[in-house]
């Protein structure tokens, strides 16, 4: 986010050393245009090759007609977009996407705030616990998801075994097959894998709060809740901002969890835009790369809009310049 | 000084260009596949994209096949074994980039033939090989009057039943009719197990449904027109729904994939399941479940029909690769190669000579007897490639919804495509 923040005119804020006007004189730091280009070349090449080129290809594919075999058959104009936007299952998919993103991000942030508070406190074994928190982050998403498929299984899954052992349920629950449970079961996994990153963002944020402010508040007689509400929470807002925006993007784009856990469910009842896009290309009766590419473009537009609206709402300029 | 700078600039530009190019080329990895053919008119290297039937055997077989191919014909075969989960994507991407493999091993071919991408048998299949292939498979491999879908192996389905559970439930013989199957499933359910494991999940819903509808005198197409919502088929699906609602199947048949149903049977918790020879192989290896195999019962007790499946080895038209491709098929359909492959993978033959070769195995008898008359899904119709996907995604809805409505919709899809 900081890079986005720097886009605004440098003169708008006073950086140490002051605004640097373009200097024509010789001296340290003077770079000729051509030489500058030389140094920037690898980065530019990388951006062109890894970001721009695929984006252009994706856009081109979204305006092309493909056979079910993948054979290019000619231009399609905006047909693919029209087909995607009028797709009967699209409303369900959009609803799932909103539920999935909002639920995972909100629950993750709340839990992470609490856990980060715990992990900044000094207690025996803290080092070990902090390491343990990283594990779900380090593990491959597909493996984690597959593990949860086994845990949730209605015939021999551990979760049902425990619940039945405790006599909480009589019949095993089909967590991934029963429509009432599927989304909630996937959200649990989504939260589980998003926690580590978010917790560490908050730990960093908490560590950055100066002790003297806290001490001053304590001297002034603020209660622990007041201290948290009036000092910790406001000072944590930049961390909150980063955690929310990055998590929203990650969770929105999260493919392996939904794809793996929703694998045996037919249709699009529990798909989000990302798995919808995949199924359009390879699993649905359309099996149409062009429609899938159009969905990809729509996805990028949606996520950009969501992030922009969010930043507007929380007034990021004010926050980042603190 | 200025020349030095110009050189630096040039080097930088070149480096940039190289980076961009490598970034672009990295995506497909198919560029080198053409290497052989660009040298002259004749390709000396061809690429095979093969589906992975098993971790242990597939790669090993194709690697040794490539060695034999090289020593016998002098061509090089690049072997690329891809999992079933990814092979559709990879082949589709390669075709998009105009870099198809020379030989592709897949479970469909008609759409490729329709797009004019394939060699027909007249171009690349040696006549001895063609005459050896069983007529059923030639029939289903023929699109628009020409034979394009060369079968690599086949499987036929049969009813697997757990003899321990049958004993416990007091059933002495496998069911011969659907009514018996239902009654047996009820008895097994009474022992606290799953009577009949019914996988209608997206993995292979069309397979399970085919087995049932063929044994009720139905079909996907009759006399060349789609008949998905025929009365017979509606009756079939309604019966399957009835089994599910009586609770004699596992919970949620619509969300159970074939692999899950097999797992259930392998764990000894299911009385019956439609299986095929690789399942038998797994069961024998584990050795924990006592089972037997019988023909799948028909609705009215008439002779059982089996559902057969074959995969294809199709050849893509590429400049100069015809001779190498022809040599490939000559070698593959030689008795040593094809029978070794099929035996190792635990599948069934697709050739007359293969049928003879596999007679030695008593366990395969139940399948081999039915194989020449096996019914297949209409793989020779490109529309089927879409209907298959539609069935996989939508058939399960009948278990909780209206079977006729589901089949009507599929029929509509088929008619609007065809």
Structure description:
- The complex is a heterodimer of chains A (322) and B (418).
- Chain A has 322 residues and is mostly helical.
- Chain A has 15 helices and 2 strands.
- The longest helix of chain A has 31 residues, at 90-120.
- Chain B starts with a helix and ends with a helix.
Name the overall outline of chain A: globular
Give the overall shape of chain B. globular
CATH architecture of the largest domain in chain B: 3-Layer(aba) Sandwich
If classified by CATH, what would the architecture of chain A be?
Answer: Orthogonal Bundle
Percent of residues of chain A in helical segments? Answer: 55-70%
User: CATH topology of the largest domain in chain B, what is it called?
Assistant: D-Maltodextrin-Binding Protein, domain 2
Summarize this, please?
The complex is a heterodimer of chains A (322) and B (418). Chain A is mainly alpha-helical and 322 residues long.
Helix and strand topology:
The complex is a heterodimer of chains A (322) and B (418).
Chain A: H1 2-5, H2 33-62, E1 64-66, E2 72-75, H3 79-85, H4 90-120, H5 126-138, H6 141-152, H7 158-165, H8 179-207, H9 211-219, H10 224-235, H11 237-252, H12 256-261, H13 273-282, H14 289-314, H15 316-320
Antiparallel strand pairs in A: 1-2
Helix pairs in contact in A: 2-14, 3-14, 4-8, 4-11, 5-8, 8-11, 9-10, 11-14, 13-14
Chain B: H1 2-25, H2 35-39, E1 45-51, H3 58-73, E2 76-82, H4 84-96, E3 103-106, H5 110-114, H6 121-124, H7 127-132, H8 135-140, E4 142-143, E5 146-147, E6 150-156, E7 158-162, H9 163-168, H10 178-190, E8 194-197, H11 205-214, E9 221-222, E10 225-226, H12 231-245, H13 258-266, E11 270-275, H14 277-286, E12 291-294, E13 308-315, H15 322-332, H16 335-345, H17 352-358, H18 365-370, H19 382-394, H20 397-400, H21 403-417
Parallel strand pairs in B: 1-2, 1-3, 8-11
Antiparallel strand pairs in B: 3-13, 4-5, 6-13, 7-11, 7-12, 9-10
Helix pairs in contact in B: 16-17, 19-21
